[in-house]
């Protein structure tokens, strides 16, 4: 099973970006997404941004992941 995590783009340098979740920052690749910009939310798996999502979907996904971790 694969799991993609929502992250917010903090900075972009070519095809690499710095993204964060809850204050934790990670370097990711953004090769697969067109028109990416700082502030966008993306789903990330294995270090690659797979698709853009809106903030509401990001928040809901993180809420569900938090609930699952408590089970």
UniProtKB/TrEMBL annotation:
Judging by the UniProt lineage, the source's domain of life is: Bacteria
Q: Which Gene3D superfamilies match?
A: 2.30.30.140
Record protein name field:
Hydrogenase expression/formation protein HypC
Coiled coil residues, start to end: none
Q: Which organism is it from?
A: Clostridium amylolyticum
- Offer an example of a GO molecular function term for this protein: iron ion binding
| One GO-annotated biological process of the protein | protein maturation
Q: Which Pfam families match?
A: HupF_HypC (PF01455)
The uppermost taxa in this organism's lineage are: Bacteria, Bacillati, Bacillota, Clostridia, Eubacteriales
**Similarity field:** Belongs to the HupF/HypC family.
């Amino acid at each position: 099973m694969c799991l993609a995590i929502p992250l917010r783009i903090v900075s972009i340098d070519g095809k690499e970006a710095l993204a964060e979740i809850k204050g934790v920052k990670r370097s990711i690749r953004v090769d697969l997404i067109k028109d990416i910009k700082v502030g966008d939310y993306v789903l990330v798996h294995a270090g690659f941004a797979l698709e853009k999502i809106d903030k509401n979907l990001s928040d809901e996904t993180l809420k569900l992941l938090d609930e699952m971790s408590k089970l």
